[in-house]
Amino acid sequence: MRGHLTEGRRRLEGALDADDRLTAARAKALNAAADLATGTGDPETAMRRAREGLALNRDLGERWGTADSLLLLGIAHNETGDFARGKELIEESVPLYRELGDDHGVMEATRLLAWSCNQLGDGARQRSYSKTSSAERGPWATPRSSPGPWPVWGVTRPTRVVGQTHCGFWPRHTASVSNTGMRT
User: Fold this and answer.
1) pTM for this model (two decimals)
2) 155 in a domain, yes or no?
3) Considering the domain boundaries, does residue 104 fall inside one?
C-alpha cells in the first residue's frame, strides 16, 4: 500500500521509535499513529498505539487526549468486529468531550455509537444515537457529515465548514479551502 497515509504513518512510527520520552507530544503522536494505522487497515497496531496513548494521556492528565484515545481505541475494536467493546470505549469518550465543550468530538462519538449499535443489532439505540448526533452537529452540519452507521477508517472524510476543511477527528486541525474546494 502506498500513499500519503502510508508515508505519514511510516514517518510517525519512526519518530515514535526514535524518542520514547513520556511527553504530551508523544501522547498526541500515539493518537495520530493509531488514527493512521486504522486508516491504512491495521487495527491491531491502532489498538496498541491507542492503548499507549490512553495510558500516557491519563498519566499526564490530558483530558482531550484521553477522550481522543478512547474514541480511537473504540474505532479500532469496531474495525476488528468487537463492536461491544468498541461501543463501551466510545461511550466513555462522550462525557469527556462534553466537559471540554467539544461539540465535534461529541458528534463524532455519537455517530460512531450509532454505527456500533447498528452492527450489534440494536436498531432503537442506533436511531437514538443518530438523532443525538444529528442534533449535536450544529455548525458542522453538511451533507457529508450526516449521521449514519457507516464505517469510518481512521482519518475521516473532510467536513467543509464556511471556508475551512476539518480533517480527522479533531476540529483543531484545519486547512483553508477556496470556493472551488481546493486547499489554499
Assistant:
1) 0.73
2) yes
3) yes
